[in-house]
Design a protein that fits this description.
Helix content of chain A: under 10%
Oligomer: heterodimer
Radius of gyration of chain B: 14 Å
Largest sheet of chain A: 6 strands, mixed
Largest sheet of chain B: 6 strands, mixed
Chain lengths: 114, 112
């Protein structure tokens, strides 16, 4: 079946611009995660959505970052007033809601801030 | 603080030369330990979940084992196509967001 789909695959933008990254999870997966992966660093948790519950935003690095999930499916991660330190690969994962279910990842969006 | 440490950072093997990758963890109650493979430009690909000490899982040339402090990923007679970064992650009992805590990975290169 179809895996997690992320778009765009690459995004280059100027410092100060806003960007939107999209994630389409696996059908039937009610849990959705955003991570950030920087060179030489492990995956960094950003935000978690589960069904209709309030999202866990504890990993968002600043108030410039926000995310929403519409209709329990597609999610959008928005970064406002981008900074050079925002350059990274942004990965989305989805899973079934039960404990210890493996998370399945998309191929990410590579974001470069000039 | 929950933490995951992987070693070595990088490993170069000859085709057919078996070896093991290590993942040491400290966590306040283990809900699950996960192994992933990541190829350049791709997202992590799920390999195994281990839940309790003594558990083992196998898939082709890979075998994952778990103790109370660490997990090993054994690679038997590797082939060049096994070259990738192998990532280990743990999910703790504390908290309910099910987020994974990740190691930095082991970059494996298998030469023909």
């Amino acid at each position: 079946g179809a895996g997690v789909s992320q778009s765009p695959s690459n995004k280059v933008t100027e410092k100060g611009k806003d960007v939107e990254l999209r994630c389409d999870p696996i059908s039937g997966h009610t849990a959705l995660y955003w991570y950030r992966q920087s060179l030489g660093q492990g995956l960094e948790f950003l935000i978690y959505f589960q069904g209709n519950s309030a999202p866990d935003k504890s990993g968002l690095p600043s108030d410039r970052f926000s995310a929403e999930r519409t209709g329990g499916s597609v999610s959008t991660l928005t970064i406002q007033r981008t900074q050079q330190e925002d350059s990274a690969v942004y990965l989305c994962a989805s899973s079934y809601p039960w404990d210890s279910q493996p998370q399945h990842f998309g191929d990410g969006t590579r974001l470069s801030i000039l | 603080e929950d933490q995951v440490t992987q070693s070595p950072e990088a490993l170069r093997l000859q085709e057919g030369e078996s070896s093991s990758l290590n993942c040491s963890y400290t966590v306040s109650g283990l809900r699950g330990l996960f192994w992933y493979r990541q190829d350049p430009g791709k997202g992590p690909e799920f390999l195994f979940t281990l839940y309790s000490a003594g558990e083992e899982k196998e898939k082709e040339r890979l075998k994952a084992t778990l103790t109370k402090k660490e997990s090993f990923l054994h690679i038997t007679a590797p082939k060049p196509e096994d070259s990738a970064t192998y990532l280990c992650a743990v999910q703790a009992n504390a908290g309910n967001n099910r987020k994974l805590i990740w190691g930095l990975g082991t970059s494996l290169a298998v030469n023909p």
